[in-house]
Amino acid sequence: MFSRLVPRSIRWRFSLATAALALIACLGSAITLDTLIRDRVKDLAFRDTQRVATHWLGQIRHSEVGQPSMTSRVTLVQLVDSDGRVVAASPRAQGRPPLSDLRPSDKDRIQHETRCWSGRCFMITAARTSPQESAELWHGRPHIVYAAMPQPALLADRRLEVILGFGVLGATLLAGWAAWVLVGRTLRSVEAMRARFAEISLSDLGSRVPQPPGHDEIARLAESANDALFRLQQAVRQQRHFASVVSHELRTPLAGLRAQLEEALLYAQQVDPHASIRDALATTQRLQSLIDEVATLTRIRTGPQVREPTNLTELVRQEAESRPMNMPITVRIRDDLVVPGNHLQLEEVLANLLVNAQRHARSKVEIVVERSTDMAVVTVADDGAGIPSEDRETVFQPFVRLPEGRDRDPKGSGLGLAISRAIVQAHHGSLSVEDSAQGARLVIRLPLHDSETADEPSAADATW
Q1: pTM score over 0.70
Q2: CA of 211: how far to CAs of 183, 192, 233, in Å?
Q3: How far apart are CA 281 and CA 301, in angstroms?
Q4: Fewest CB atoms within 10 A around its CB: which of 64, 115, 186, 355?
Q5: Residue among 301, 315, 434 nearest 376 (CA)
Q6: What's the sign of the alpha-carbon dihedral 334, 336, 337, 341?
Q7: pLDDT tens per residue across span 73-130
């Protein structure tokens, strides 16, 4: 029930919250100010009555009581003896009974009070003569001087509270209005971003949200949103291209498989069925291998990565030892390195690079493992024909095969280097083709494990 009463608009909620806080703060300030003003006015009033009372007491000498020195505000002054009789009084206080029944003691000779009569209130100060003055002037009988003034209008009515109340109300409304304007101006950019987001669809990811000037949180939000839209646009474009390429690559073997099966059915008497089945099975295996590689590439790009400390140096040694002996592999270990990574995926990267290097090498393949600042560097080089500079990035695209690679391995899919780069990038590293005096030189760079320290170089070379 309460949630229904809360406005859904952030602008309304923020404005109401600001107004409520302003009301609490202003109300507390108004109460404090009211108390201070009342106390100050009361103190000033009693200071005037006390000054008149004590000044008159100081003028009394040898039982001679003169006229009191009054002010424009203090007009009622009386001298009352110990029996309560008015001995002397100012003109306006003559004929009146004692202004008050206060009887200050010797220890507290001055007291104040407020009394009302005839529809008016007065502030009264009672000043008692000292024992010495009482003994000298009236034979030890104390007298009391009463000085009174009308209560100031500020204390007599609620005018001050009304003024402060209007001030609190005005300040509250002003704070709420200021919050409404400021939040509305701030949310204007957010609303523009929301409207633009609502217009964006997968068919049109080129739109961008409006970015307000400055470097505040909303400007950074718009910048991050545009960056996310750009990455999304790139990802969708890559996915569409990848889907197009995959469909094209799958269409050829599927068409061949269909032709083989149709030939076996249409020309059953002229075609050996066993040969047709063997050819169809070989095509099916190629399709299965292609689908597995595509699934592997997709999983690496989109799936979560589980990493653990992996001894990259030992992994290189094991992979080099497991390769066939048709082409010698020289391994140069300059540092013993540990990287955070997936053991099986890094093993697949090394296997792909070594397969390519052995396929294109003329006489040798060389692997170098070394450290470069906080990166582990693995270089795989061969002495083959090499990769032209204009194709150094093209070879990492899915299903792209250079003419030499197509001649040496006609059944290849063209996904090996693409999968290798995707794995390395998922490990926050890089895989690239770099300059070489002869042949191809592929370089892997991976960040070292946090606990990796500078070990002594082993400088071990081995040939398999």
Answers
A1: no
A2: 17, 9, 18
A3: 30
A4: 64
A5: 315
A6: positive
A7: 888 999 988 888 888 888 888 888 999 888 898 888 899 999 888 888 999 999 998 8
What is the spatial distance between Cα 220 and Cα 233, in angstroms, rounded to a whole number? 20
Q: Which two tokens stand for residue 93?
A: 């206080």
* 68 C-beta neighbours (distance < 10 Å), count: 24
State the pLDDT at residue 199. Answer: 76
Average pLDDT over residues 314-326: 84
Judge residue 261's burial from the number of C-beta atoms within 10 Å of its C-beta, 0-12 exposed, 13-18 middle, 19 or more buried.
middle
Q: Which two tokens stand for residue 410?
A: 């006609």
Q: In what order do the strands lie in the sheet with 365-372?
A: 430-433, 441-447, 375-382, 365-372, 329-333, 460-463
Residue positions counted in the chain: 464
Asked whether the beta carbons of 320 and 331 are under 8 A apart, the reply is: yes
- pLDDT, mean of residues 364-373: 89
Question: To 10 degrees, the CA torsion angle through 405, 411, 412, 414?
Answer: 90
Determine the Cα–Cα distance for residues 415 and 397; give it in Å rounded to an integer: 8
Which residues, including other chains, have CB under 8 Å from residue 426's CB and lie 6 or more apart? 300, 301, 305, 345
What is the set of domains in the chain, with CATH numbers?
Answer: 10-160 (3.30.450), 218-302 (1.10.287.130), 308-463 (3.30.565.10)
Look at residue 403 and give its three-state secondary structure. Answer: helix
Across the chain, which distance is largest between two alpha carbons, in Å?
160
Which token pair is 41? 């006015």
Query: What are the φ/ψ torsions at residue 218 (nearest 5 degrees)?
Result: -70, -40
pLDDT in tens, 129-187: 888 877 877 777 888 999 999 998 888 888 888 999 999 999 999 999 999 998 888 88
Query: At 125, phi and psi to the nearest 5?
Result: -115, 130
Do the beta carbons of residue 350 and residue 365 sit within 8 Å?
A: no
